[in-house]
Specification:
By secondary structure, the protein is of the alpha+beta class. 17% of the residues lie in helices and 40% in strands. Strands 1-3-4-5-6 form a 5-stranded mixed beta barrel.
Length: 142
């Protein structure tokens, strides 16, 4: 099941701030606590908070990369919302995010201060053909 935003039809593209993630993948319907320290990432979170709290979450290909470029970030990720944001004394940010929908980066709109991407929602087509039905019954019977 995917949540649909009433303002945007399924598959619509819209610019969203992007947060490259190290060592974690956020899936739809998953709530995760993240500690964010990079200036670009904090700026992306600030932008998300000034909008409707939506942000594109995508994993980095190499977690050791400190200043990722678009080539260092996977193109498929999750559109999520910022549930809670707490600024810590050391300058880092503790953030609680909830994944909502799978999406793919179509293009990078901004890369200087922080990443802004045009993200297109990926809608899964669930078919109830004979093979799928047989596999479901096979799994249920074991």
């Amino acid at each position: 099941m995917f949540f649909k935003n009433d303002k945007d039809p399924a598959g619509a593209r819209r610019p969203l701030p992007a947060l490259p993630l190290r060592d974690i993948i956020v899936f739809p319907h998953m709530v995760s606590q993240l500690f964010v320290g990079r200036e670009k990432s904090i700026a992306a979170l600030d932008d998300a908070m000034s909008r409707e709290k939506e942000i594109f979450l995508a994993a980095q290909k190499n977690a050791k990369t400190n200043d990722p470029t678009p080539d260092d970030i996977y193109t498929v990720g999750t559109i999520g919302i910022v549930v809670q944001l707490l600024r810590l004394a050391d300058g880092t940010v503790k953030v609680l995010v909830e994944g909502r929908r799978r999406a793919r980066i179509k293009r990078y709109v901004e890369t200087r201060n922080y990443f802004v991407v045009d993200a297109e929602e990926l809608v899964e087509n669930v078919s109830a053909d004979v093979e799928v039905e047989a596999l479901i019954r096979s799994v249920q019977s074991t």
